[in-house]
């Protein structure tokens, strides 16, 4: 048996029903292996970049990178986001190609005979799938332009509502955001109208403190600023506070109180912790100075909603006069007098 006979035998086998079944099985296995291999390569590249960043910054895990430069954190987040998007693209492309190839094996003339029908259906789907295309392209631009990444704290204005939370996954068509209550929101990328990212660059803590009108404003301002500066110099907060705290001064003056504004620039990941710590320290500072906040009665009400819950703001109550059980009064004529 020469090589030609072997080739004819192999060709004849794959043309038989059993051969076609074997060919389809091989195609399915090859598809699974290809997807796994591409996933492995993408994950390997992502891990290499992340590990390189951690090694450069001397961090043991990704959470420790919060104390590293902001650009470093963005590199890690963007790398993981792009890796997630590439994984989704690989899944879609490989599966579509595999399905077309298997269809060609099972029915060689099917795709050709249905070409016109496929074109018509494709045109119809094109009009119906405009939102899907919009979602995909918007998602790609959001990732490439680094508008958001996995782990970012964002405020997203979607059609008709707003969602705020942490980005858990950025997909080609849909992104997942978990809010503070634990609800996981699935947001189509094409529905995003406006996006505010609170994890890029820096953030500012703004604390407005009301003190009595009679308090020594200069002394209170000096002690408040000293408290904030002292906190920023401590080892725990030194890497989280970016600039020296600033006291912007008197924010507003009313008949009974004065509002002072203190600001501090911090890393985005440390805003909540630093804000709580600073408020606690300012409270102790005011206690040491003997400064009591203005009473609730001195605060002007914005409206009459919930006015019943404010001490001293209850409307006057009058005792109702009951007239239900009161008998009708009958006037009797006097005796001895006739008309």
From TrEMBL:
Keywords: Cell membrane, Membrane, Transmembrane, Transmembrane helix. SUPFAM superfamilies: Mechanosensitive channel protein MscS (YggB), C-terminal domain, Sm-like ribonucleoproteins. The chain crosses the membrane at residues 20-42, 82-102, 114-133. One of its GO terms (cellular component) is plasma membrane. Residues 131-194 form the Mechanosensitive ion channel MscS domain. Its main location: membrane. It is found in: Cell membrane. InterPro entries: LSM_dom_sf, MscS_beta-dom_sf, MscS_channel_2nd, MscS_channel_C_sf, YbiO_bact. GO terms for molecular function: mechanosensitive monoatomic ion channel activity. It is a multi-pass membrane protein. PANTHER family: MODERATE CONDUCTANCE MECHANOSENSITIVE CHANNEL YBIO. This is Mechanosensitive ion channel family protein. The lineage of its organism: Bacteria, Bacillati, Actinomycetota, Actinomycetes, Micrococcales.
């Amino acid at each position: 048996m020469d090589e030609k006979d072997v080739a004819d035998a192999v060709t004849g086998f794959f043309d038989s029903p059993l051969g076609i079944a074997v060919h389809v099985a091989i195609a399915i296995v090859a598809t699974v292996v290809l997807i796994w291999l591409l996933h492995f390569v993408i994950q390997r590249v992502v891990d290499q970049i992340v590990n390189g960043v951690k090694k450069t910054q001397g961090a043991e895990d990704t959470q420790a990178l919060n104390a590293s430069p902001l650009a470093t954190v963005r590199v890690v987040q963007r790398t993981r986001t792009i890796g997630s998007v590439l994984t989704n693209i690989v899944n879609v492309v490989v599966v579509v190609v595999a399905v077309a190839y298997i269809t060609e094996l099972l029915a060689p003339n099917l795709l050709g005979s249905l070409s016109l029908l496929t074109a018509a259906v494709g045109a119809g789907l094109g009009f119906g799938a405009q939102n899907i295309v919009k979602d995909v392209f918007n998602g790609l631009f959001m990732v490439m332009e680094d508008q958001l990444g996995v782990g970012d704290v964002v405020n997203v204005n979607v059609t008709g509502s707003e969602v705020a939370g942490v980005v858990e996954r950025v997909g080609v068509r849909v992104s997942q955001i978990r809010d503070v209550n634990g609800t996981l929101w699935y947001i189509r990328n094409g529905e995003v109208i406006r996006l505010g990212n609170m994890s890029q660059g820096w953030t500012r803590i703004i604390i407005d403190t009301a003190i009595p009108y009679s308090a020594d404003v200069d002394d209170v301002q000096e002690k408040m600023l000293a408290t904030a500066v002292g906190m920023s110099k401590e080892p725990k907060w030194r890497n989280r506070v970016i600039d020296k705290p600033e006291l912007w001064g008197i924010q507003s003056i009313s008949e009974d109180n004065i509002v002072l504004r203190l600001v501090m620039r911090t890393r985005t990941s440390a805003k909540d912790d630093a804000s709580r710590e600073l408020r606690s320290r300012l409270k102790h500072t005011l206690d040491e100075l003997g400064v009591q906040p203005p009473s609730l009665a001195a605060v002007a009400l914005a409206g009459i909603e919930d006015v019943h819950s404010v001490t001293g703001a209850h409307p006057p109550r009058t005792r109702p006069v009951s007239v239900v059980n009161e008998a009708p009064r009958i006037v009797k004529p006097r005796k001895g007098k006739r008309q």
